[in-house]
Amino acid sequence: MHVIGTVGLPGSGKGEAATVAREEGIPVVTMGDVVRQETQDRGLDPTKDHGTVAQTLREENGPAAIAERSLPMIEDRLENHETVLVDGLRSDVEVERFEERFGDRFTLLSIEAPFEVRRERIDARGRDASEADGGEGLAARDERELGFGMGEAMDEADVVLQNTDTLEAFHDRVRTVIREGPGLEGEIGSDSDSETHVRGRNS
Ligand SMILES: Nc1ncnc2c1ncn2[C@@H]1O[C@H](COP(=O)(O)OP(=O)(O)OP(=O)(O)O)[C@@H](O)[C@H]1O
């Protein structure tokens, strides 16, 4: 059994990591799915009330509320899959909940890319979906995510994955993490000239 959770600021590549997982036949549970389900259960509009419900859930049941509700979904997928990817953890409190439940079988993967790189990618992604919002919008989103405890969550990562090269290189690195299984630790570097390498934090 292996549960991989991803953290990372907007545009870092969490969606791409989820795409690689799906290609590998690994089910993906997103924290967004949990909130959408809850929004529906409350008879609210998932497109409009998503943010309010996420906030209400945390106020009513504590900061780990969403992670807590994702556990049955994850356990359900683990019944017939060896590995599950959880997309988009938001805080260290959520990380702790997963560590409590899955122990060494939980790998926290932090996906990182500099602000300007993320901004360019989000602008490119938004070209068709009118998502491009310039640097200020992204700075505000970063601020909001960091306010939830994203920075602390990233600090707890078992594996740091740099996403500063090509998409192909990034996909390869994600596949490495998936195939290695539990227990992987260290940084998968951004050095495009060398082979993908994994090194332990203490080596
Ligand atoms: N290494 C890369 N090279 C080129 N484009 C990339 C690379 N990594 C990601 N992208 C593209 O950048 C955009 C942002 O990546 P992605 O959607 O995976 O980020 P995210 O972390 O899920 O962002 P958000 O939290 O905003 O949803 C996407 O259009 C993706 O295809």
Automatic annotation (TrEMBL):
Give GO terms: molecular function aspect only: ATP binding
Q: What is the lineage of its organism?
A: Archaea, Methanobacteriati, Methanobacteriota, Stenosarchaea group, Halobacteria
User: What family is this protein classified in?
Assistant: Belongs to the UPF0200 family.
Q: Give the InterPro entries listed for this entry.
A: NTP_hydrolase-rel (IPR022970), P-loop_NTPase (IPR027417)
Listed HAMAP family: UPF0200
Residues annotated as binding ATP are 8-15
Annotated segments matching region Disordered: 180-203
Which residue intervals are annotated with compositional bias (Basic and acidic residues) in the record?
A: 194-203
Q: What is this protein called?
A: UPF0200 protein OB955_04730
Q: Does the keyword Membrane apply?
A: no
Q: Which Pfam families match?
A: AAA_17
List keywords of the entry alphabetically: ATP-binding, Nucleotide-binding
| Keyword ATP-binding on entry | yes
- Origin species, per record, is Natronoglomus mannanivorans
